[in-house]
Amino acid sequence: MRAAWERWEGFWVAGVRRGAVCRAFDGDVLTTRIAFDDGSGTFFASESLIRLTASGETWEAFRFRQEPGGLCAGARRDEAGHDADTLPASGEYLLVSQLAGSAREAATYRRVEDAAPHETPAPAEVRRHPEEPVDLPDGRTVWAERFDVTAGGVRVASHWTHGGAVVRSSWAGALCFASPSGAEALDGLGERLGAFLTAGFPRD
Hints:
Low-confidence stretches: none
Order of helices and strands: EEEEEEHEHEEEEEEHH
Mean pLDDT: 95
Distance between the termini: 28 Å
Helix content: 10-25%
Structural class: mainly beta
Number of strands: 13
Radius of gyration: 16 Å
């Protein structure tokens, strides 16, 4: 059984903390929940669940939902015709963490879009870059390695690791900073955000 873990992040836009991210792995399934208020009162929430194969070398199936908009998507890797070197976009955190804990400079794969899993996966890469200073919300500055994620030749995300752990991520115009606990990540966000980040969407 692979080790289980749970990690929380604050979700920041334009210097304001708007929400949080919860990533949880139970040894088989990686669950990623993102929720935030866009500043005008609109509640945004997404949830991804990726089940790994027994060997952990690739993924078996995944499901994705996003609101507002009622977007629901999902696929089984074998039925969708995706090879073992593919990975849903929301699973890149696992790849970054593995690369950070190794001596490798890069990892290549093909990126399956969460919202469109049956489209052709884009060639993708996670590449390590030298340490650089990273300012954290608590006022500290740490030296962190940067890992850039490119897909189809375009940088889609960057992640910074310190001591082998992701401390900051940047994607889609937002910054996410690691939080020491779920309680701290949820503090001040309100009941609706907290309820979703803790339990996710209702199960059918």
